[in-house]
Amino acid sequence: MGKRYYCDYCDRSLPYSVEARKKHDYGHHHQKLKKHHFDQFKSAREQLQDELSREKCRRFHSGQDCSFGDTCIYSHLTDIDISNLKQQAREEELQLKKLRLPTLVKNGKEPSLESWLSRKEQKVQSTSDYPVEDSTDWELKYTIPPNVVVSCLPPSLIPPSAESLLQYEFVDWG
Ligand SMILES: [Zn+2]
Ligand SMILES: [Zn+2]
Hints:
By secondary structure, this protein is mostly helical. It is built from nine helices and two strands, in the order E-E-H-H-H-H-H-H-H-H-H. It has a two-stranded antiparallel sheet with strand order 1-2. A hairpin with a 4-residue loop joins strand 1 and strand 2. One of its GO terms (molecular function) is zinc ion binding. Keywords: Metal-binding, Zinc, Zinc-finger.
């Protein structure tokens, strides 16, 4: 038995030779089935554009059977099909827009302006009560990593203490 070539699109096998395969690949039947295969993965908007760019199939729309079925080069979509497809395309677009939103907004947890303002208010109050930051904040911010030997640090890298800043004397430059 000679080598055979199996075409997934057409679901048939044929004797293999370069010419035979080329001839098959350019064949009308194969091209239609191949297009049909990829059409399944088109978005609703692409399908809609594709269908609207084709003429309506006269046989199909006059109530007769069109032997080409799904692979007909003319459009078999009815007005209802088209309006359904339009609806689908709109929904697709909404989904896409949703995907592009920030995570908080997507999960319905968008921070409100009110909560932001009230937090800001609290912050302003707390800083006016304590001119020096809360001591735990302070320590967190200026803690030296444990593997650093403090005595080797240049003065500019030594974490300031609250006291040292309160006693600081400002110097005029220049
Ligand atoms: Zn084929
Ligand atoms: Zn048709």
